[in-house]
Amino acid sequence: MNAVTAEKMVLAFIGCITFLIVALLFTILGIMFLKGLPAMHGGFLFEESSDFGRAGGILYQLVGTLILMGVAVLWSLPVALGSVLFQTEYLNTGKLKTFLTQLTYILNATPTILFGLVGYLLFGVYLETGVSWVTGSLILAVMILPTLQVSIREAVEALPEKYREAGMSLGLSRPTQIWRIILPQSLYGIVTGVLLGLARAAGETAAIMFTATTFSGIQFPQSFSDPVPTLQTHILVLAQEGANPESIAQAWGAGLVLLGLVFLMTLMAWAFRTRMVMESEL
Amino acid sequence: MNAFFCVRKLEPVGWIFAAMNFVFLGCAMALGIFLVVESVPILRSEGLSFWLGENWWVGESFGALPMICGSLIVTGLAIFFVLPVALSGALFTSEYLPPSFRRKVKGVMELLAGVPGIIYGLLGVSFLTLGVKDALNLLDGNTFFTAGLLLAIMILPTVLTLSEDALHSVSYEFREAAESLGLTKLQTALRVVLPQSLPGIVGAVLLGIGRAMGETIAVMLVVGSLDRVPGFNLFVSGQTIPSKLGREAAEALGSGLHWNALMGLGLTLFLVVAIITFSGHLFIKRCNQ
Amino acid sequence: DTGSRIQIVGSTTVLPVASRSAQKFMESSSSRILVNAGGSGVGIHSVVGGRADIGMASREISLDESNRFEKSHLKIHPVGLDAVACVVSSEIYQAGVQQLTARQIAGIYLGEIRNWKEVGGPNKKIVVVDKERHRGTRHVFMEYVFGNASQRTPGTLLVTGSNNEEQAKIAQSDSAIGMLSFNWINEDVKAVSLLDHGKEIMPTWESVRQGSYPIVRKLNFITAGNPKGEVKAFIDFVKGPEGQKIVEESGYIPIENP
Amino acid sequence: MIQFKNFAVAFGERKVVQELTFSLSTNSITGIIGASGSGKTTFLRALCRMNDRINNFSVEGSVFIDGMDVYRPDTDVYALRRKVGMVFQKPCVFPKSIFDNAIFGVRDKLPKKERPDLVEKVLREVFLWEEVKDRLGEKATTLSQGQQQRLTLARTLAVGPKVLLMDEPTSSLDPKSTAAIERLAQSLKSRHTILWVTHQHDQAQSIADRVLVIENGQVTPLSTPIVPPEKSSSFTKILQGYPE
Amino acid sequence: MIQFKNFAVAFGERKVVQELTFSLSTNSITGIIGASGSGKTTFLRALCRMNDRINNFSVEGSVFIDGMDVYRPDTDVYALRRKVGMVFQKPCVFPKSIFDNAIFGVRDKLPKKERPDLVEKVLREVFLWEEVKDRLGEKATTLSQGQQQRLTLARTLAVGPKVLLMDEPTSSLDPKSTAAIERLAQSLKSRHTILWVTHQHDQAQSIADRVLVIENGQVTPLSTPIVPPEKSSSFTKILQGYPE
Ligand SMILES: Nc1ncnc2c1ncn2[C@@H]1O[C@H](COP(=O)(O)OP(=O)(O)OP(=O)(O)O)[C@@H](O)[C@H]1O
Ligand SMILES: Nc1ncnc2c1ncn2[C@@H]1O[C@H](COP(=O)(O)OP(=O)(O)OP(=O)(O)O)[C@@H](O)[C@H]1O
Ligand SMILES: [Mg+2]
Ligand SMILES: [Mg+2]
């Protein structure tokens, strides 16, 4: 067997795998549609839920999820970006850099329920801020921080040294270099990170259950100290204690909406990204 | 504090970045210190037998061995499933697919990575456990194997898309140089591209391991949640650290030794991940020499 | 214009009752009632810490808790009853296992009985499904079977949490046994009758109402001290006829004397 | 033998090489000159199908190297590239040790213990051995540009190609090394067919059996003696030429 | 004015430039020659502190450029680098349009409507304008090596440095462009101090007011007329020289 046949076989093999992975997405999509569709009625997206999820829609849950996700990324992105740039562009001791990198990975592996409980103790018990969306978004922000950091770091470090040198030789100050060379060139990775982070935040229940959400009784938060209903906790509660088929169906429906929401954001990010990316695609 | 002596001269923007870094450091440290402080009582009362004990019974003894083994097994399984698949997929996408297709596959991966964890949980309970049970003719489908498989599916897109990024970011000049020497695409990929993107790939895998290690809800729903030290059988139910926390932590909140024991579990996970991460970085270092 | 805000936190079992009642209550009141899940433990803990006005619990306050939180003067307000059945997969039920004695159930949970044929069923291994130790369901079930609410069960194969989770697992299996609130019994998951000294107790609402069904638990609201104002109004509402109707609609049993 | 039949090369609309029918004999050195951006690199790269991955790149007509049709769909490109070695204008060494770089193309085919000999041989050929023999294990990226250029040449020689495409192989070398590489080319001539792109016309004239000029997409042999263009540098003005 | 005082440069243990005390006058062109790997690039990079990022790099002594101590800890490196422009041996263009590349260093300081003028001016100066004026919006990475080299020169000129460090700026250029760049250097001399690394000794001799030779870490002025070394290429052998 010569190299070319071997190559072809490997190619066929890994091609199949890739195809299967793509097929996996469609399977998941298909299942979610089949399961979620029964809950979809005219006003599912635009009605308040009532009767313990047996009737109505999920409007405010949707809004709550959006608020939490969005604000969490808002907190997290600057910290992630700042810390990664500090580590890659300013620090030049290898040891400290490695330590910080490892810390990122360790933080990433922390079970989310720990964030929830520690957050509950810190905010709820010691700081007595009560259950509110601000608290929840802060906790989510810490939770998605590692995801953002890893993606951003990867993108920034993949940037060839020669670009930095070319920028340096033109007398660009470090901030200018970051702004003009590093950020545009690693935008792709940053957006990937934000997407992954958003998805993590969207799927998270344990961390916000005790700190930020409420099942019913609130529609739209009117102050910083109000909790919000969210899709993910709605799903969890209904899937746990909904004894009747309507509630279960509504849980799947909410799941489908959540999925749709994340997909929608991803699509928007793509559109934005293709316009902004400057790295040549070769 | 040492950090300040190593950094190059800082301008105002640099100070902002440094501050951000301290926020990050603060969060991680705070969590770590919290866990240590909260688990001191249990370590004091149980000592080493906290990690070696097989028996977890509130009010009597707290032995974390079943959970530690479970976490390692489930994560190991997930990585075992994911690694070949993700690497093949990444290699194919980055090296063989034309750019337009590549972007499409990447898109699919990002969509998949965007499927929220709770949905994987729902799907796992409704389909995967049944599938595993029927396919393998088991007594029951809630097993380590199922949890590993579910985790593998969960982390696959993340690992794949991040390692693909790492592969793709290797400059094409290197590929050209290798191909001009008559290497096939595969040889080029394996001998030039892969080694150069290794840090990125290890990073992606570490991220996946972390995700698998820390996943709570999805694992809790399919692993069976039975505290026992497993033998060599992967097709039995068991318990992982996060699923144990998920089942008991809310109930045990602030209730003395039980709570401390659970925080001790959290600390243990922290340490295990630290060891894995450390070895990962050691591996990169090795490969760079 | 918003009146007072009432926070209710705790057990997901009680949640449907609280959520529905709150919705109804707010129609005629200016106060806002927030209902959130979290589990009985968090419910009690929150009430003690003043982070919630009412805690929901599907179990009694444990000895440990009542000792620690003595200062808070926790008050229990039962709002409904739930009955717990011993359930088996429908395949087993059809194959003949329609009644079990407490001793047989104990044998199964202790791992002494491993095959259904030992209790008159088909030749199949038993998938023993237990619940998280702190669950109210388990407390009353074990209390009945063993006389000890926190009995160890070495025969267990799976541990589950919520009713839905357990229901799903028993339904997916074709040889499982477990414990479930009546509300979750359906054609996949069948409740067996309990044989007590030769007397068969049917797992029906009827026998619960008559008081002959032995495995019942109270669904509780918990407050720190005696409730006042709107909180009291709400608790009274739930205990009142309208509230009790909601309790019934939610699949639980109204308390005897409202 | 390299034969071109109506060979044309283009990036999208922009034709870089137009309709070329021509042949080059075996074991000869062909110099290629032309202004910057005229298409010399593109021309060489087309010969070993290095442009395959560029999207808007297209060829017409055909090239035969030793009777092998380069652009036939069923041509084994990898075999082709082992036969037609290319040394790039911009040296690109792998971030590995100098040793590993030198044997990179043949590592799989060579038993472990023959490797040091081969490395020494090729590094000597490109006159790099003395400079690096004590630091073979160091990263090749720490070498100077000229050293890297020679290393990539050595790396290509190690594969043992029949045809050598050299894109300005001496552009970052000092005169001494340049002379040495030129002599190397002369000695390789007996076994290899060499195409040598250069900007120094005198170099092309002195080493090549034949000089091709690329201008406006036309590849023409330089037959007339070169006429001096504008002054390029006072010392060589009489000698260097440029076809206008 | 560039003054060296006991200036030495090393990578770890390996000294690249040893104990140099010397000064270069303003508005002059200094040619730098030396064998490949002798340290020319390192020397230039040291002048604008481009090696700060390299771990085992170290300097001793001091350099003053226009009275500014380059290696004083409180020196503003960015101002320094704007004053001391460097053109690299291996051109590195940004994966952006040609236009953006040309104004990259000054974009923030320049009002939008002045940009096209500046771009045209600098591209004309490096004789690239005619070749690229119709494709200013295209990616600069599609340019040929020589074009890229000129583009990076243009990019540096746009910043308006006082001192220009040019590392083999004509190595991938044809004689015509080379001559043009050489003429450009002559005209820039009135405003800039230029250091020009080259391998072609004739070039160094013809354009530079003074030629420095780097050899074994010693930087010495070339005073004696150059003696021909070994034969480098038949046409120039009488004219090119190499200090042994
Ligand atoms: N980062 C580095 N680490 C260690 N050694 C280095 C590094 N960079 C360069 N060197 C070594 O320093 C010496 C001088 O290199 P330099 O690039 O300055 O040479 P040069 O004179 O520019 O050569 P050329 O004409 O080939 O470009 C070389 O021996 C090179 O291998
Ligand atoms: N990928 C590409 N896409 C579009 N145009 C290209 C591409 N690569 C090169 N070109 C253009 O094709 C022409 C020929 O480029 P080539 O690199 O072959 O020139 P060259 O003769 O090698 O020049 P130099 O001596 O400067 O290296 C140039 O005008 C260049 O801009
Ligand atoms: Mg070229
Ligand atoms: Mg150099």
Polypeptide structure, described:
The complex is a heteropentamer, with one copy of chain A (282 residues), one copy of chain B (289 residues), one copy of chain C (258 residues) and two copies of chain D (244 residues). Helices cover 74% and strands 1% of the residues of chain A. With 282 residues, chain A is mainly α. A two-stranded antiparallel sheet of chain A has the order 1-2. In chain A, a hairpin with a 4-residue loop joins strand 1 and strand 2. Mean pLDDT of chain A is 84; it is low at 278-282. Chain B is globular. Chain B has a two-stranded antiparallel sheet. In chain B, helix 6 (117-136) crosses helix 7. Chain B has helices at residues 3-6, 12-46, 49-52, 65-96, 99-113, 117-136, 144-168, 172-180, 185-214, 217-222, 241-252, 257-288; strands at 56-57, 61-62. Chain B is mainly alpha-helical. Chain C has 258 residues and is of the alpha/beta class. Chain C has ten helices and twelve strands. Chain C has helices at residues 15-27, 40-49, 63-68, 90-94, 102-110, 136-146, 163-172, 205-210, 229-239, 241-249, and strands spanning 5-10, 32-37, 54-57, 74-89, 99-101, 127-131, 158-160, 176-181, 189-191, 193-196, 199-201, 216-224. In chain C, the strands form two sheets. In chain C, strands 1, 2, 3, 4, 6, 7, 8, 9 and 12 form a nine-stranded mixed sheet that branches. In chain C, helix 6 links the parallel strand 6 (127-131) and strand 7. In chain C, helix 9 crosses helix 10 (241-249). Chain D has 244 residues and is of the alpha/beta class. Chain D has a domain at 2-92 and 163-239: P-loop containing nucleotide triphosphate hydrolases (Rossmann fold). Chain D has eight helices and ten strands. Chain D has helices spanning 40-47, 77-83, 98-102, 115-125, 129-132, 145-159, 175-188, 201-207; strands spanning 2-11, 14-24, 29-34, 57-65, 68-69, 84-87, 163-167, 193-197, 210-215, 218-221. In chain D, strand 4 (57-65) and strand 5 form a beta hairpin. Mean pLDDT of chain D is 84; it is low at 225-244. The interface between A and E is medium-sized, with 22 and 30 residues. Residues 40-41, 89, 167 of chain D line the site of one magnesium ion.
